[in-house]
Amino acid sequence: MGRAAGTAAGAVLVLAAVATACTPPQLDRADARRTSRPPATAAPLASPGFPPTADRARDQLDRLTVAWGKNWQTYQRSEFGEGWSDETDAPGGRNGCDTRDDVLRRDLRDLREDARNPCAVLSGTLRDPYTGRELPYHYRRASQIQTDHVVALGAAWRAGAWAWTPDRRLTYANDLDVLLAADKETNYAKSSWTPDKWKPPRKEYWCEYGRRWTGIKAKYALTVTAPEKRALQELLATCG
User: In this structure, are residues 145 and 184 in contact, taking their beta carbons and an 8 Å threshold?
Assistant: First the structure.
């Protein structure tokens, strides 16, 4: 598929893109309403044993069905729900926090959370896994940080999600195992490409990228193409 189509299928969602002059940042009315239900912020933000070890990922990869993608032309982002949802049984689901807030709380360091709403991250720093760049985050300020579906929604659709129920697609789109905070420009370049067409610029991350990608495909019983499988084998070979 073309780069424009791949970009449309990438399911890119900006974590924070609205500038504000408020210092310190203030919660809006929607945020204030959320404080009335204390979030279960201690809930697990990943499945046990995820991402899999290299040996486990190699075993999972051997068991995946190899097939060419299907129905790429019917993909629409709306098939996976409209925006983020906490109402799923995926890791981080039903914990009172927005999915993107869960990603921030998990992936950023030097966190500063709002005292009234522990879901809301006021500031922090991301070490982008794909490039190694240090990216600052400030609540309600323009940010270079986006939420990436490691196996993009379009890629998942082609690999079998086209046949899922709407509830399963909504769960996938909000599963923290599938998501990473990442650099915006790199995420655009990644789009919905599979590893045979795109790999992280930072080679030190290739092992974990292969483990995460394979773990996601195995968790959701998605297919892989033959070139994709070879690329994943190459990524996992960097694990030693």
Answer: yes
CB-based contacts of 217, cutoff 8 Å, min separation 6: 60, 61, 64, 151, 159, 223, 224
Distance CA 198, CA 210 (A): 12
Q: What are phi and psi of 57, to 5 degrees?
A: -65, -40
Residue 47 covered by a domain: no
What is the DSSP-derived secondary structure letter of residue 53? P
| C-alpha distances in Å from residue 131, one per residue of 54, 181, 182, 202, 210 | 21, 12, 9, 5, 16
Per-residue pLDDT of 86-105, as tens digits, reads 999 999 999 999 999 999 99
> Is 13 among the domain residues?
yes
* DSSP at 198: -
Model pLDDT for residues 139-180, shown as the tens digit of each residue: 989 999 999 999 999 999 999 999 999 999 999 999 999 999
Domain count, the chain: 1
DSSP letters spanning 13-34: EES-------SS----HHHHHH
The first and second tokens of residue 120, run together, are 């809301």
What pTM, to 2 d.p., does this model score?
A: 0.83
> Are 24 and 202 spatial neighbours (Cβ–Cβ below 8 Å)?
no
Angle between helices 54-63 and 206-219 (to 10 degrees): 50
Helix (H, G, I), strand (E, B) or coil at 80: helix
| Residue 160 domain-assigned (yes or no) | yes
Question: For 85, which DSSP code?
Answer: -
